[in-house]
Amino acid sequence: MQSMTGYGKARYNQDGISLEIEIKSINGRYLDLKISAPRELSFYEHTIRTKIGHILPRGSMEVKVNYHDSREPKIQVDSAR
After folding, report:
1. How far is CA 60 from CA 28, 31, 45, 52, 81, in A?
2. What is the pLDDT of residue 2?
3. How many domains, in total, are found in the chain?
4. What is the full per-residue pLDDT of the chain (81 aa) written as tens digits?
5. How far apart are the C-alpha atoms of 52 and 63, rounded to whole Å?
6. Is residue 41, in this structure, part of any structural domain at all?
7. 76 in any annotated domain
8. Is residue 20 part of a domain?
9. What's the confidence (pLDDT) of residue 12?
10. Which residues pair with 66 in a beta bridge?
11. Does residue 45 belong to any structural domain of this protein?
């Protein structure tokens, strides 16, 4: 029998983008997945659920995603109009 208990954290920083993903898991009879992500990345929730579900059939997991984009916005305002 394999243990479903674990913890992992990964960080990515490049060109003004910072991304941190933290995963905690404990034993569980069924797959119980809680995902916490910023609104800008909410469209990835289904992909995260699907990928984890294919790898781990059971366990209680918590996935936290932190994202920060410090690049300059590409919006230009024409104040002469």
Report:
1. 5, 6, 16, 11, 55
2. 66
3. 1
4. 567 789 999 999 999 999 999 999 999 889 999 999 999 898 999 999 999 889 888 889 999 999 999 987 777 777 886
5. 10
6. yes
7. no
8. no
9. 97
10. 20
11. yes
Per the structure, the complete domain to which residue 39 belongs is given by 33-70
Which pair of tokens denotes residue 4? 């479903």
Cα separations in angstroms, 65 against 17, 24, 48, 53, 78: 13, 12, 11, 17, 36
Task: Evaluate whether 5 touches 25 at the Cβ level (below 8 Å).
Answer: yes
Whether the Cβ atoms of residue 70 and residue 13 lie closer than 8 Å to each other: no
Distance (Å, rounded) from C-alpha 81 to C-alpha 79?
5
Whether 33 contacts 52, CB under 8 Å? yes
Amino acid identity, position 28: G
Q: How many Å apart are CA 68 and CA 29, to the nearest integer?
A: 35
Please state the length of the chain: 81
**β-strands 31-36, 17-26: how paired?**
unpaired
